[in-house]
Amino acid sequence: MAGAELEFHLLVAALRTDRADVESYHRVLSETLGDALPPGMVEVSRHKTFADRVAGRDGQVVSVQVSTPDRVLVLSAGKHGGVTAEIRQVVRGVVISRKEAAVDDWLAALAQELTTLAEKDAKARDALSRLLGG
To answer: Which residues contact 65 (CB under 8 A, 6 or more apart)?
Structure first.
């Protein structure tokens, strides 16, 4: 159990490093973990300007949502910059509560969900290992 606890703290630290905007979290979640996570687990919402559409660009990431059987974790671009975090509790596919959270609390909840997934799935465990530099 001590190994899992250490891995959990390492994951939180890795996710916390140099992540000041939603775009940064999107890159980590989709590029590092995207291949290992089940399809549909990470959803990204973007805002496309007319110039983005004309140029064929993806647009700016405005939110990242990670869905698990028991929780939905949402990071959004704040109205005045920065990042806002929300943790939603889910029962049988229905959101029963929404709670604004500090980004550190959101990261801890994400790390807990990913650690739980890694305990059940070898592919997810390998991705977490790569993220942690192992």
So the answer is: 42, 43, 44, 45, 72, 73, 74, 75
